[in-house]
Amino acid sequence: MKNKVLKTIIENHLIESGDKLVLGVSGGPDSIAMLYILNEIRKSKKLNFEIVVAHVNHMIRTEASEDEKFVKENCEKLDIEFFSKSIDVQKLANTNKIGLEEAGRKVRYEFFEEVLKKTDANKIAIAHNKNDKVETVLMNLLRGSGIQGLRGIEYKNEHYIRPLLDCERSEIEKYCEEKNLNPQIDKTNFENDYTRNKVRNIVIPYIEKEFNPNILETLSRLSELMKQEDDFLKQQTNKIFEEILIKQEGEKQIILDLKKFNNQEKAVRSRLLMYSITKLFGTTKNIEKVHIEDVIKLCENNIGNKYLTPNKYTKILVKNHKIYISKQK
Question: Fewer CB within 10 Å of terminal CB in the chain, N or C?
Fold first, then answer.
């Protein structure tokens, strides 16, 4: 396991000499295995880096306090600095009218960022594994995702790294057993109330039994292929964007040449719009496929002074042979 994780780290440039990592550790098999494996690698001196641990007590399960105590004790055993935070995620979800999973994720990542700044660390390690990656691909496929969704989970995303992404869950559980780590088990993972759990506990085992026993490897390869193709298309989109860009006013407005835009293939036009919106907002959240198709139709019709508002923050206006993509106050 250690050698496999080290290979992933080196091949994907996840950890460099002098890095300081914040490890998100829940106490489950994946994150506890990550903690011990990275500590082994660190002590072997093959890579020179530091580790601190961040744990969030979601106050949902009755065992939540035991999880926190378990992670803290393991950090003390390994002489690793430990940070924790308790927050009522159910209450937060209710207050903000969002799902429990979304609220939990929001709290975790905000705390990881907080610890990153507090400790002068530069990277955050998350314990996603190959099963998580395949589950994400399948979930996105079922939702009708395009190429970007079929990339699954990335090895590296800004300062977030995932060193266990080439390891299957069964390998991780075996490692924990061999090392006698006795990780905490979240029983809610076996309840099929959420889409991911249904995919994990029902869909993948059924596919393995009835269609393809190597489905994890097959979909993992598909994910890598989609990543390569998506990266190529992104490069091409960036080049074309520079060619059709008339003006960019900071993060307020982007003006594109309408004629040059309409001369592109439809797939490229979609990407140009998404790329422009990302440049303004840093995200394409709340921008759906139907919004992009409506904007493309608006541009094709080329009727002056017509505009669309895909959401309350974004306005797209066609005027004087130009496309104005603007932030709304």
Answer: C
- Closest by alpha carbon to 184, among 66, 302, 56? 66
Residue 231 and residue 228: Cα distance in Å, rounded? 5
Question: Residue 161 in contact with residue 15, Cβ under 8 Å?
Answer: yes
- For residue 95, what pLDDT is reported? 87
Residue with tokens 């790294």: 161
Output the pLDDT for position 96. Answer: 84
Could you tell me the two tokens for 129? 């594994």
Is residue 117 predicted with pLDDT exceeding 80? yes
Domains of the chain: 2-221 (3.40.50.620), 250-327 (3.30.465.60)
Nearest residue to 311 (alpha-carbon basis) of 277, 287, 279: 287
Task: Identify the pLDDT of residue 61.
Answer: 75
Task: Give me the residues paired with residue 256 across strands.
Answer: 245, 323
Contact 122, 20 (CB under 8 A): yes
Contacts 24+ apart (CB under 8 A), 246-254: 246/322, 248/279, 251/279, 251/280, 251/281, 251/327, 252/280, 252/326, 252/327, 253/280, 253/324, 253/325, 253/326, 253/327, 254/279, 254/280, 254/324, 254/325, 254/326
